[in-house]
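It would be a great kindness if you could assist me with a short task in structural biology. The full record is reproduced below for your convenience:
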Amino acid sequence: MKVPPWRPVPEAVARLRGGGVVVLVDGEDRENEGDLVLAAQYATPEKVNFMLQFGRGLLCVPLEATRARALGLPPMVAENTSPLGCAFTVSVDSRHGTTTGISAQDRAATIKRLALPKAVPQDFHRPGHVFPLIAHPRLLEGRQGHTEGAIALARAAGLFPAAAICEVLREDGSMARFPELQALSQQFGLPLIRIADLRRQVRQGR
């Protein structure tokens, strides 16, 4: 029996809760891209390396605005002119358990510390090799991006609201579209879901 390409949102939530990776796709009227998503608290060198090897995009860490402020992470620029409003903060490396900051092991340590409730601003070097993103305060009701979707997934899973995300590119470096995202999902058994479906699920769960 052929497995439908889009998986139920609860399946993706359960996978994230168990420390797994999911593929989150936005709309064709937006970026029309897919990101690998992992709960930040479950970052390991192996999982980060997987995301870098098969995602090939920029590894970022969505955070809520209150978390970014608590960690002393200001916006990367004073005037954000990004067409889709991607809200990068200054980049960081963890001061603990890292060397140069760029290896999968170092980036996993940084990602995990960003999700550590007791972390403080002094735990991070600035700039670094991990790129935090600030989610819209209203999450998917305010912006239908991978940043907000990743936080919504983490919240739905009952996890700390922080995630690691990485865009999926083709082997030639161009953006992966649905056929490649579906193939990646099937190759590794990763739940493939749409942001629009996640938004509906969140609304229904209120």
Observations:
- Strands lie at 22-25, 34-39, 56-63, 92-94, 124-134, 163-168, 192-194.
